[in-house]
Amino acid sequence: MRKVCFIVMAGYIVIPSVSVASDYGLGVSIKSSDVSVYLPIRVSESLLVEPYFRFFSYDDSKSGAATSQDNSSTTYDIGAGVFRILDSTNNLSPYYGARIGYVNRESNYESRYSSGSWGSESTSRGFSIAPAIGVKYSFYENISVGFEAEWSYVKLDNDGVDKSIGIAPSSDGTNGSQTSSGTNTKIIIRYFY
């Protein structure tokens, strides 16, 4: 993971010096449990290249008279998007494009009963593809707020282990692959320097 972060950051530093990029900057979108950081590069008035890093964390614990459960998941995404920016009208600029990225997800689940416990740990790795459309409003030449809608497809390969004490596991593990798709909306604040 460190190598991938280093490669993206090195590319972010090198690309502006060897290309015709007029501006590069920093962007962010925040939800309740999801933070994304963007490194937008305005290659031209109509082309935006945007490396990104996303962090998502989920943690839930429940307990009752005879049982307790812990469920947690941490996801890291790293990738880049390419967007075509259409002509601006009254500081509003529609855009479209897609993001592609590497996804790493770690999950842990454990149930404890009076007769024993059962749980699973898994690490899933794969890729995501997300075609997107959006519109951005430029307050000044270097600050904008964008609204974006995307449809994402994620394919992950799982490497998991069931763990139990006193209760037989339902399977030998959680190996295999999974796919998911869905829509997502976000507000992105971008600052170009």
How would you sum up this structure, described in words?
The protein has 193 residues and is mainly beta. The chain has a single domain (2-192), classed as Porin (Beta Barrel). Helix content is 9%, strand content 71%. It is built from 1 helix and 9 strands; from the N terminus they run αβββββββββ. It has one helix at 2-18, and strands spanning 23-30, 34-38, 41-44, 47-63, 68-85, 92-113, 116-138, 143-165, 176-192. Strands 1, 2, 3, 4, 5, 6, 7, 8 and 9 form a 9-stranded antiparallel sheet that branches. A hairpin with a 2-residue loop joins strand 3 and strand 4 (47-63). The longest helix is centred in the N-terminal third of the chain and has 17 residues, at 2-18. The chain is elongated. Mean pLDDT is 82; it is low at 13-19.
Query: How many helices?
Result: 1
Using the alpha-carbon principal axes, give the shape. Answer: elongated
Secondary structure category: mainly beta
State the helical fraction.
under 10%
CATH architecture: Beta Barrel
Question: What percentage of amino acids are in beta strands?
Answer: over 45%
Gyration radius (Cα, Å) is 21 Å
Largest sheet, if any? 9 strands, antiparallel
Put the structure in a nutshell.
The chain is mostly beta strands. It contains 1 helix and 9 strands; from the N terminus they run αβββββββββ.
Please outline the helices and strands:
Elements (H helix, E strand, L loop, with lengths): L1 H17 L4 E8 L3 E5 L2 E4 L2 E17 L4 E18 L6 E22 L2 E23 L4 E23 L10 E17 L1
Antiparallel strand pairs: 1-2, 1-3, 1-9, 2-4, 3-4, 4-5, 5-6, 6-7, 7-8, 8-9
